[in-house]
Specification:
Strand order of the largest sheet: 2-1-9-8-7
Strand content: 15-25%
Bound molecules: zinc ion
Helix content: 25-40%
Number of strands: 9
Largest sheet: 5 strands, antiparallel
């Protein structure tokens, strides 16, 4: 899987997930991605990566405040549960025998969720901007999401805005 980064296109005013490889020529990053809609050159920032292309910070805002989470596509886990619940209702309604068969979809859903959890790669997210990084070799440790830290950063940002 090619590593991807979400990059903000100013012209389209949207974040786009694009393949981006942090290769450097001198101090400049090569522009290796472009907006698929407006063709604007989009590129991550040098401060997000070390000389070997490993991720050490945010590839967009160069912040060092990042956290790790599972890169579940939104709604995937919920989808499994909804399907399992529906299957259970159908089985219960049909008074299937033996009665314990009714619970098979729920157990299956729990197993599927557990498997997904293990096979889903981590995504590295930024506390300060919506940038999400996936598939990069890591140049340092990234801790899981920390609510207290997120709150503190939000307060800091608020204070900066107020004083600006
Ligand atoms: Zn664009
Ligand atoms: Zn960022």
């Amino acid at each position: 899987m090619r590593p991807t980064l979400t990059l903000y296109c100013k012209q389209c005013q949207v974040w786009r997930r694009l393949p981006f490889e942090p290769r450097f020529t001198g101090s400049e990053l090569k522009h290796q991605s472009m907006c698929p809609k407006c063709q604007a050159a989009l590129s991550g920032k040098r401060g997000g990566f070390d000389a070997e292309g490993r991720q050490i910070g945010c590839g967009w805002c160069e912040s060092k405040d990042l956290y790790r989470r599972k890169a579940f596509p939104k709604g995937q886990g919920i989808g499994i549960v909804v399907v399992a619940a529906a299957a259970t209702l159908v089985l219960a309604w049909q008074e299937i025998q033996p009665p314990w068969l009714v619970y098979v979809p729920l157990v299956g859903a729990a197993l599927a969720d557990a498997v997904l959890y293990f096979v889903t790669p981590d995504a590295i997210c930024c506390y300060r901007c919506p940038c999400v990084h996936q598939g990069y070799p890591l140049g340092r440790e990234f801790a899981p999401y920390d609510h207290a830290k997120a709150d503190q950063i939000r307060l800091e940002k608020g204070a900066q805005k107020a004083s600006a």
